[in-house]
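Re: Re: token formats

Sure, here are both.
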Amino acid sequence: MADRDEENEENGDAWFLDLDAKLDKYAVGSQISAPAVRVIAADGRQLGVLPIAEALRRAADAGLDLVEVNPRANPPVCKIMNYAQFRRSLRSSGSSN
């Protein structure tokens, strides 16, 4: 890993490593360990505090992912979103910096 880090820094790709570290902080789907979470729908509506099973079901029913966006809140805050699209948007915005 250190060789990759050094190589990326030499190539001016340090932003990419920072982005990977930021993306790693998001728990997605079954990685979320809280028994209940505050859920924000894909359209921004507050769905309230739901048991994790219900939150995961709602995300699956929408064909999207449940992503923990604030794990330190009580209860943790999760958003229903397309996680792959979210990662792509962060990567493209990071490369323009």
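Second one below.
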Amino acid sequence: MSTLSQALDRSLTLRRRLGYSLDTTERNLRHFIAFAAREDAESLSTALFRRWPAAFGHAHRHTLGRPLGDGTALCPMAPRHGSAP
């Protein structure tokens, strides 16, 4: 399991303990992490996220924006970038 996948699992576990329902968010984040793995990404970046829609296939813009929509879903995965706005 990749470091990004492990970080995602930790983040989702924490958020669920806080009461969040993350079914759609989890599915989208797992797609994004799989894309990051195919890109050999070791960390997340805006550039990586901006390349993702082309690889995602046909999806509504709300679907593509949802994983990072609240600004916190990926924060624990990239702590060196600071906290969410």
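Residues 3-77 form one domain. DSSP finds four helices and no strands in the chain.
- S.
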